[in-house]
């Protein structure tokens, strides 16, 4: 092969090359995504939730002290280590700018990278289409599901990008089945596992694809499967061991689920219906719709396997989408966490969009019909109608956020709260040596820098008893944060005599000084 041919081959395989030369369209879409995140964050900054404070405080401690300690002076166990580590790297690169302040730039870049790689992947489909690529790019840029994620300092922002990198890396492995390519995709899967614990789905999907790969001889398949699995879970196993040594718990305190499979299936369906831009009036069909989605993915995967279409981006994407969807449904039925919602399912948005549309250009290409644009017209119209619907949702969301801020600890409800202003200005009212409890310990840290203890979960009886045995302590009660899962003010007053020191519309400070 001549030097010119080699250079051409290398440039064709680069993610910066695609249909019609350099992927300028992908870059433009990525820049649009970056700008959108800045628009939403312009009023009061990036969205901050309790999880965000956990990530940001740990990142700061990694940067300052090289320790995995959260804002409440406890080791990070409930979440894996890579996202806070990533944020600490951002602190270092930015010269010390904290993640909350740098959030719009960090998330804008991550969202732009997701958009760009999505466009690149579409150029590698069996039947690449410029119109299809543009429609997908617009859908991803305008997606309320993704914009919601990238408006907050959440680990999903990085995990979604890792998924797309995994898809590209696995396709590279399929081309040669080389040891180098296998190790690279295994490392990407391992990083996914310590970005979100749900990253184990990358290992599961990759293992399944190796298992059904007919081009591998049995002995080679066994070695590759063992290598991929061992490397893929290595980092998260190390994370578990570290957690176990630090706190005695591998993944923090976890409660058993209180939602049965059918109920999770219903919420799964409502999320997908919402992604499709359909109103809440369609929710009664949510269970049936969820079943159709899962069976549809399974059917697409089985058909492609039967047709020996294993060596394709489409097959990798469909396999992962099915794996992630089933995993979330099962784990939500076993372990208790927040109700099935768009955030929890967001890592499957782009794969799901591609899975249920990738066959259309392929079908149009192979149908023998001279006026192929007639065949494509219904799909184009449907996609444009969908994008018009979600664009209207985006506009309404922006209209709300540009007046009040992104919901969370950076919005006006918190920033303009009289109680928050009082806490910031009167940190001296708390006597030294008296522990402070709160129903929002992360809010106390966020606005005052003080450390407090979260009111115990009712499920953990020993923690509840420990609170009741305390003789002297303060309670910072945020009235709007009342949770049925935590010991509340009324329950505490049944066991302890509390003196209300300061009272505001949205919060109060109490003192307990029992004999």
UniProtKB/TrEMBL annotation:
Keywords: Membrane, Transferase, Transmembrane, Transmembrane helix. The chain crosses the membrane at residues 21-41, 74-93, 105-123, 129-146, 153-171, 183-210, 222-242, 285-305, 317-337, 343-361, 373-391. The keyword Membrane applies. It comes from the Bacteria. GO terms for molecular function: transferase activity. The keyword Transmembrane helix applies. This is Glycosyltransferase family 39 protein.
């Amino acid at each position: 092969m001549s030097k010119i041919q080699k250079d051409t081959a290398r440039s064709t395989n680069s993610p910066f090359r695609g249909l019609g030369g350099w992927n300028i369209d992908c870059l433009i879409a990525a820049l649009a995504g970056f700008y959108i995140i800045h628009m939403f964050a312009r009023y009061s900054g990036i969205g901050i939730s309790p999880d965000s404070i956990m990530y940001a405080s740990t990142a700061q401690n990694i940067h300052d002290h090289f320790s995995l300690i959260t804002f409440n002076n406890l080791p990070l166990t409930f979440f894996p280590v890579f996202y806070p580590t990533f944020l600490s790297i951002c602190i270092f690169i930015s010269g010390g700018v904290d993640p909350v302040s740098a959030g719009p730039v960090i998330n804008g870049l991550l969202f732009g990278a997701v958009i760009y790689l999505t466009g690149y992947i579409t150029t590698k489909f069996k039947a690449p289409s410029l119109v299809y690529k543009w429609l997908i790019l617009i859908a991803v840029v305008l997606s309320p599901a993704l914009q919601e994620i990238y408006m907050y300092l959440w680990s999903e922002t990085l995990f979604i990008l890792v998924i797309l990198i995994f898809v590209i890396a696995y396709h590279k492995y399929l081309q040669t089945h080389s040891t180098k390519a296998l190790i690279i995709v295994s490392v990407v899967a391992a990083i996914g596992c310590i970005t979100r614990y749900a990253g184990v789905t990358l290992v599961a999907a990759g293992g399944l694809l190796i298992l059904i790969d007919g081009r591998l001889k049995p002995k080679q398949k066994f070695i590759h499967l063992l290598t991929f699995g061992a490397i893929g879970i290595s980092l998260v196993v190390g994370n578990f061991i570290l957690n176990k040594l630090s706190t005695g718990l591998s993944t923090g305190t976890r409660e058993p689920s209180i939602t049965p499979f059918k109920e999770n299936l219903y919420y799964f369906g409502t999320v997908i219906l919402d992604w499709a831009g359909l109103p809440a009036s369609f929710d009664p069909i949510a269970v049936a719709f969820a079943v159709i989605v899962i069976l549809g993915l399974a059917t697409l995967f089985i058909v492609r396997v039967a047709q020996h279409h294993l060596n394709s981006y489409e097959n990798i994407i469909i396999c992962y989408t099915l794996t992630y969807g089933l995993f979330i449904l099962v784990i939500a039925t076993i372990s208790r966490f927040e109700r099935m919602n768009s955030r929890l399912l967001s890592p499957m948005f782009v794969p799901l969009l591609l899975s249920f549309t990738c066959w259309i250009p392929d079908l149009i290409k192979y149908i023998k019909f001279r006026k192929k644009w007639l065949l494509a017209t219904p799909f184009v119209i449907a996609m444009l109608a969908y994008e018009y619907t979600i664009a209207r949702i985006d506009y309404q969301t922006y209209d709300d956020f540009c007046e009040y801020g992104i919901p969370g600890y950076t919005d006006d409800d918190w920033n303009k709260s009289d109680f928050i202003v009082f806490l910031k200005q009167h940190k001296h009212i708390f006597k030294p040596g008296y522990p402070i409890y709160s129903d929002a310990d992360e809010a106390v840290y966020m606005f005052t820098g003080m450390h407090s203890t979260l009111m115990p979960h009712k499920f953990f009886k020993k923690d509840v008893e420990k609170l009741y045995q305390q003789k002297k302590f303060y309670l910072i009660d945020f009235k709007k944060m009342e949770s049925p899962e935590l010991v509340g003010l009324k329950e505490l007053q049944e066991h302890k005599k509390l003196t209300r020191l300061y009272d505001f519309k949205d919060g109060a400070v109490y003192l307990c000084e029992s004999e």
